[in-house]
């Protein structure tokens, strides 16, 4: 190609790329002629050949492009595992019930939002499949998020599992520039204080080579199990 300035490189298995390209488009707002770099992935089949796992649910949140106001958009992911299920016991009927619960909690009426910030709220309950590390503006916000996520499975928080920490490091809203790889570049934006909005939820089951779309408000993911008006 004569003009490499506008080249975008995506790498992964065919199935994985078919599932991920809509997400990448939503995340980075790909436009014609815009270079967002290269992506390197581990094929799902390679990962699943090595690891077995309990079914995993991922809830994805993004800052809207308009709210980012030209800055890199902040993102957030909250995931948990279904510890009472395996790839053999779980099925589409159960996944639909789960998707309806997520839709009710996060995508009905006004979308669920949370304020991302500089304080770390951790919640670990391995027996029930929870291992959260949330960046929030204050402890109460972290507790609110945890309560809503656990309610998907009708679980109540055990607050003895909660830990709160605040770093003394400074995280500027607009990072400075430094010479990196021989060129003056802006440092990555760390711990931005931004409003995150629910975008979609997906399910990962060992033996299924692609993510199962549960709920999607972006309308860019293929065949979610439940639709959002």
Description of the structure:
This protein has 229 residues and is an alpha+beta fold. It is built from 5 helices and 12 strands. Strands 3, 4, 5, 11 and 12 form a 5-stranded antiparallel β-sheet that branches. 24% of the residues are buried. It has 2 domains: 1-49, no CATH class; 52-216, no CATH class.
Query: What portion of the residues fall into strands of 2 or more residues?
Result: 25-35%
**Considering DSSP H and I runs of 4 or more, what fraction of the residues is helical?**
10-25%
CA-based shape: globular
* Helix-and-strand structural type: alpha+beta
Q: Characterize the main sheet.
A: 5 strands, antiparallel
Q: How many helices does DSSP assign?
A: 5
Radius of gyration over all CA atoms, rounded: 19 Å
Question: How far from one another are the termini?
Answer: 43 Å
The stretches of 5 or more residues where confidence is low (pLDDT under 50) are 1-6, 26-42, 44-51
- Total strand segments: 12
Task: Give the total of domains.
Answer: 2
Query: On the 0-100 scale, what is the average pLDDT?
Result: 82
Key structural traits:
single chain; 229 residues; alpha+beta; five-stranded antiparallel β-sheet; three-stranded antiparallel β-sheet; 5 helices; 12 strands; 28% strand; globular; disordered N terminus
């Amino acid at each position: 190609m004569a003009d490499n300035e506008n080249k975008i490189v995506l790498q992964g298995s065919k199935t994985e790329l078919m599932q991920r390209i809509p997400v990448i488009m939503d995340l980075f707002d790909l436009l014609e002629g815009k270079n967002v770099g290269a992506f390197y992935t581990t094929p799902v089949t390679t990962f699943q050949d090595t690891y077995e796992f309990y079914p995993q649910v991922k809830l994805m949140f993004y800052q809207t492009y308009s709210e980012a106001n030209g800055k890199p958009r902040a993102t957030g992911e909250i995931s948990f595992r279904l510890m009472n299920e395996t790839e053999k016991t779980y099925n589409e009927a159960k996944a639909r019930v789960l998707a309806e619960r997520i839709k009710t909690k996060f995508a009905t009426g006004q979308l669920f939002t949370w304020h991302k910030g500089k304080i770390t709220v951790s919640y670990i309950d391995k027996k029930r499949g929870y291992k959260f590390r949330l960046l929030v503006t204050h402890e109460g916000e972290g507790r609110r998020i945890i309560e809503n996520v656990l309610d998907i499975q009708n679980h109540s928080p055990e607050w003895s599992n909660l830990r709160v920490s605040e770093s003394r490091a400074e995280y500027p809203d607009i990072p400075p520039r430094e010479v990196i790889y021989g060129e003056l570049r802006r440092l990555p934006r760390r711990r931005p204080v931004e409003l995150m909005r629910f975008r979609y939820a997906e399910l990962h089951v060992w033996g299924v080579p692609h993510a199962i779309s549960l709920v999607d408000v972006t309308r860019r993911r293929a065949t979610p199990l439940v639709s959002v008006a």
